[in-house]
Amino acid sequence: MYCEAAKKSLSRRLALGLLLLSPVAIAGAEDVAAWPGKPIRLVVNFAPGGAVDVVGRAVSAALLPRIGQPVVVENRAGAGGGIGAENVAKSAPDGYTLLVSAGTLFSIGPYVYDKMPVDPFKDLVPVAPVSRGIQYLLVRSSLPVKDGREFLEYVKKNSANMTYGSAGNGSGPHLAGEMFKAKTGTSALHVPYKGAAPALQDLLAGRLDYVFDPGIGLAQLAGGKVRLLAIGGNDRVSRFPDVPTLGELGVKGFDAESLFGIYAPAGTPPALVKKINAEIGKALDTEAIKSAILSNGAEVVTPMSPEAFLKALRQEAGRFGPIAKERGIRAD
Fold this sequence. Notes:
With 332 residues, the protein is of the alpha/beta class. α3 links the parallel β1 and β2.
């Protein structure tokens, strides 16, 4: 009896020792008031120069004068953002390693990849949204339509002979294209590319009829090489206030936007998550970060709590997931 009691006592002590040595326990003991006491590593899970990278660097620049510590951007691309996400998920949950990512990591990735390096809803904690990624409906300049309503009439009559391009199978623009087809009853041929830029090039060359573009094609509007006909979200955008949403044109329920935001490893203390959320919210109120986000074709979001951000991501997944399943979409 004594031996059994001794064994149980030893097991409890060992378990407590392991808990105290775990990163979660160490982070929990961290003095939240002292954060940040050293530089922060901000992992961007896509390549330099892309939309996520622009957002990450804007956040880095805006946070520095607020928190008094460098925010070092580190690009770790691959697996639809999964490589960078895994790196952060495996880091100590102490507020010194954060991830910046498009919400598609949560809302599309689990539905189009057979296996992801992380389970985003379990391995990461949403901290704060930064911007709304917009899908812009662009058409080739030679398409015989002058506005969104004419385009909808045209595509319904000619969809069997039409093509649209995307940034690749399982990408946000691909899901937007399939959502458009599902909600309009059309059947344009999907042509996947390795990124949004080559898809745009073929649109400019007249080899595609339309694309859902994340913003890089907006620079071509002034030259008349492509035309912007509609916004693929619930709301118009500040940069193009006269361009209607697809919903306004009659495509009910169309919303292919994705939230870009900041994430921490699972196990990060809620008080620390709340503190980082507050700092990011204040940083978003600076002209420099607003300018960077708007120039990238995105929209600055109204600050929201971590809980509200998580709810928004689940709603986003509820929009993209069914389309991916219905259409059998798989990532490259």
